[in-house]
Amino acid sequence: MASNSAGGRPDRRVSFNAHIRRAAEGGEVMLRRSFDYDEGPTAEGLPDTGLVFIAYQADAEQFLAIQQRLSDADLLNDYAVPIGSAVFGLDASCRGLLRHNGTRQEASRRTQGHR
């Protein structure tokens, strides 16, 4: 995210604590996807809905760095409550999953089905 607008003034269109800005600050590259679910109301009548987030990165330390920034200051935390987390490893033969042309945008396009 650029910190200055075209006129050289600070760009205030995206809050400094916005989820997307906090996640992107370190420049880490990830393939990511989220899936929402709705299991209907619980026995107490409360909604049982949520979001499952999956991210593929070459190094778990990158994901941990992003999570630390998000836990420090992320406006989304006012609305979402994480209830679980896990890290899984892939065999080295899967390294090609994270190959891209060097830009975060290209890696993001691949997760959306664009070529």
Q: Average the pLDDT over all residues and give the rounded result.
A: 76
What is the number of helical segments per DSSP (H or I, 4+ residues)? Answer: 3
Structural class: alpha+beta
Kindly state the number of beta strands: 2
Low-confidence spans: 100-115
Distance between the termini: 23 Å
Tell me about this structure.
- The protein has 115 residues and is an alpha+beta fold.
- The protein has three helices and two strands.
- It has helices at 19-24, 60-72, 104-111, and strands spanning 31-41, 47-56.
- Strand 1 and strand 2 form a beta hairpin.
- It is flat and about 45 Å long.
What is the strand and helix layout of this fold?
Layout: H1 19-24, E1 31-41, E2 47-56, H2 60-72, H3 104-111
Would you summarize the structure shown here?
With 115 residues, the protein is α+β, with helices and mostly antiparallel strands. It has three helices and two strands, in the order αββαα.
List keywords for this structure.
single chain; 115 residues; alpha+beta; two-stranded antiparallel ribbon; 3 helices; 2 strands; disordered C terminus
